[in-house]
């Protein structure tokens, strides 16, 4: 029986477990925490439910695909609806744009509210679609570290997009060249934060992201984002995957450059294949201390992290939706605070996610569950207690001004998440949300591959390796690992239940 040990039950680890089980591996997932999900977990504060980490869900077909692969009907396990509107954007000057799911209506709204030519918005979204279609197969769905990727016809397609790719301009420059309204530029620049990057440094290539949200759609899963992890764990267990919780892996065992298993705080597990879903930096530093580490890769600048205030709010705000953004006055300065000065801007852009808008059961009647997030640098020894206190005040002041309501007086439940907690709960290096940032044009090639070129049988999935962070990319990392691992005959002992 070919055994696979997966280190970590984050979304990447769970999806890899499904793929390897379907391939016929005998799969054990070893998870340090008492439950699955990693960053994607949920909790309750009194009568308010919260998704702790990710809140925006795109490319749901990547989840469906796992159920189909296992011969199941996806909707028997996992259901979701398309959000409309997607996001409600607010600016300090009092203007606002409701980004409707229909791209045409969104363009119309941008024209009405901001005076941005409708045609230009449509063209920007069409360009984003062209870029995505031309490049995704090469840059996101395959290993960039295998020769045969470059021999495929998809590369020719990607090369055809080269001039459009915006490798010579930053994302901000590309957007500012296209639009004169600084508010609409800010709206487009914000997509850089979807992988924890800075639009003033990241290449124009990141302008493929709006396509995911505006042309394909943003979705809300029944039961919240946590339902993605929960439904896939159910599937994995049906396929015979064993999840062992409270079982931190301490070492990856190798013999003559072959992986032979892992050692946890409770014992040893022999394995022919080991997949690390742990952040790649601590994987090398803690689990492979005797192996030479790929220092250049590990030292790539980290993505941003987040400060999150989970608030149970005793009021319903009809002007808000599931996703809401309250922009800062000076976006450039905000990113300089994060990436240059490694601190938090005194006027941060505030993201408020309210899942009770989609599922009223997430909050008591007359209340809302607010997930209030500010982008911050990853942990480099800052005084997070002080930064949290200062940011909380700045956020409350800004919301009071922009919503004309004293939100502080309405908070009846509260919890905070900072980069230190993100790091301690998931082992993400510095509490970075998305592994390394995309703040330079070679970033895609500098992420760690999904396999080890030194240790046979060792693979990597999750947000800190290729193709990057965020739910869809973590699912794609699992897909790539599923393709790279050797085929095995189905195991009779672990046939589906
Ligand atoms: P992780 O979630 O990082 O989990 C790794 C798992 O490995 C953990 O369970 C950990 O306990 C376990 N582990 C680590 N070390 C060991 C060990 N030695 N032994 C055993 N187990 C170990 N993405 C989006 O797509 N949309 C969003 O809106 C979004 N917003 C976000 C907001 C926040 C606040 C955060 C934190 C993240 C957000 N993300 C978002 C990013 C997204 O959550 C992550 O990219 C993704 O969930 C990471 O999954 P992963 O597979 O890398 O594993």
Overall pLDDT confidence: 94
Domain tally: 3
Quaternary structure state of the chains depicted: single chain
Broad structural category: alpha/beta
Describe this entry's structure for a reader:
The model is unreliable at 493-497 (pLDDT under 50). The chain has 17 helices and 19 strands. α1 (11-23) runs parallel beside α10, α3 (103-114) crosses α4 (118-139) and α4 packs across α9 (209-216). The protein is globular, with a radius of gyration of 22 Å. A hairpin with a 3-residue loop joins β11 and β12 (268-270). The strands form five sheets. It has a seven-stranded mixed β-sheet with strand order 7-6-15-16-17-14-18. Strands 9-2-1-13-19 form a five-stranded parallel β-sheet, with helices on one face. The protein folds into three domains: 3-38 and 225-300 and 442-494, FAD/NAD(P)-binding domain (3-Layer(bba) Sandwich), CATH 3.50.50.60; 106-216, no CATH class; 304-426, no CATH class. The protein starts with a strand and ends in a 13-residue tail after the last helix. With 497 residues, the protein is an alpha/beta fold. Helix content is 35%, strand content 19%. Flavin-adenine dinucleotide binds at residues 7-13, 30-33, 38-40, 53-56, 248-249, 277-278, 306, 308, 422, 426-428, 433-434, 462-463, 469-471, 474. Pathway: Carotenoid biosynthesis. This is Phytoene dehydrogenase. Keywords: Carotenoid biosynthesis, Oxidoreductase. GO terms for molecular function: oxidoreductase activity. Residues 11-479 form the Amine oxidase domain.
């Amino acid at each position: 029986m070919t055994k696979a040990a997966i280190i970590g039950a984050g979304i990447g680890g769970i999806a890899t477990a499904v793929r390897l089980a379907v391939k016929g591996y005998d799969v054990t997932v070893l998870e340090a925490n008492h439950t699955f999900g990693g960053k994607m977990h949920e909790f309750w504060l009194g009568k308010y439910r919260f998704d702790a980490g990710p809140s925006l869900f795109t490319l749901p077909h990547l989840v469906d695909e796992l159920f189909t692969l296992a011969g199941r009907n996806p909707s028997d396990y996992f259901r979701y609806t398309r959000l409309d509107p997607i996001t409600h954007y607010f600016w300090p000057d009092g203007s606002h744009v409701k980004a409707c799911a229909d791209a045409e209506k969104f363009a119309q709204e941008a024209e009405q509210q901001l005076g941005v030519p409708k045609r230009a918005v449509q063209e920007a979204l069409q360009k984003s679609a062209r870029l995505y279609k031309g490049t995704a197969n090469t840059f996101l769905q395959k290993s960039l570290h295998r020769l045969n990727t470059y021999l495929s016809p998809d590369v020719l397609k990607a090369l055809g997009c080269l001039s459009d790719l915006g490798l010579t301009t930053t994302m901000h420059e590309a957007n500012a060249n296209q639009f004169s309204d600084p508010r609409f530029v800010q709206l487009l620049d914000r997509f850089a934060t979807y992988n924890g990057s800075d639009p003033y440094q990241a290449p124009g290539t990141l302008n493929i992201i709006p396509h995911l949200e505006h042309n394909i759609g943003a979705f809300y899963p029944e039961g919240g984002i946590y339902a993605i992890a929960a439904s896939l764990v159910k599937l994995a267990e049906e396929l015979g995957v064993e999840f062992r919780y409270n079982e931190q892996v301490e070492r990856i065992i190798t013999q003559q450059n072959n992986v032979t298993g892992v050692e946890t705080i409770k014992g040893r597990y022999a394995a022919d294949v080991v997949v690390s879903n742990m952040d790649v930096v601590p994987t090398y530093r803690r689990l492979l201390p005797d192996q030479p580490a790929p220092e250049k890769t590990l030292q790539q600048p980290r993505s941003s992290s987040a400060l999150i205030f989970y608030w149970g709010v005793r009021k319903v705000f009809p002007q808000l939706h599931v996703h809401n953004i309250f922009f800062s006055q000076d976006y450039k300065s905000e990113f300089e605070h994060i990436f240059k000065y490694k601190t938090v801007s005194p006027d941060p852009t505030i993201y408020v996610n309210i899942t009770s808008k989609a599922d009223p059961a997430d909050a008591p009647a007359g209340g809302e569950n607010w997930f209030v997030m500010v982008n911050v640098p990853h942990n480099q020894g800052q005084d997070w207690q002080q930064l949290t206190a200062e940011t909380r005040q700045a956020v409350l002041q800004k919301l009071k001004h922009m919503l004309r309501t004293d939100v502080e007086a309405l908070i009846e439940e509260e919890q905070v998440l900072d980069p230190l907690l993100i790091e301690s709960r998931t082992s993400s290096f510095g509490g970075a949300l998305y592994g390394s940032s995309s703040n330079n044009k070679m970033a895609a090639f500098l992420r760690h591959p999904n396999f080890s070129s030194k240790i046979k049988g060792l693979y990597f999935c999750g947000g800190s390796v290729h193709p990057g962070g965020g739910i869809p990319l973590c699912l794609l990392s699992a897909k790539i690992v599923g393709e790279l691992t050797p085929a095995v005959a189905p195991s009779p002992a672990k046939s589906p239940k």
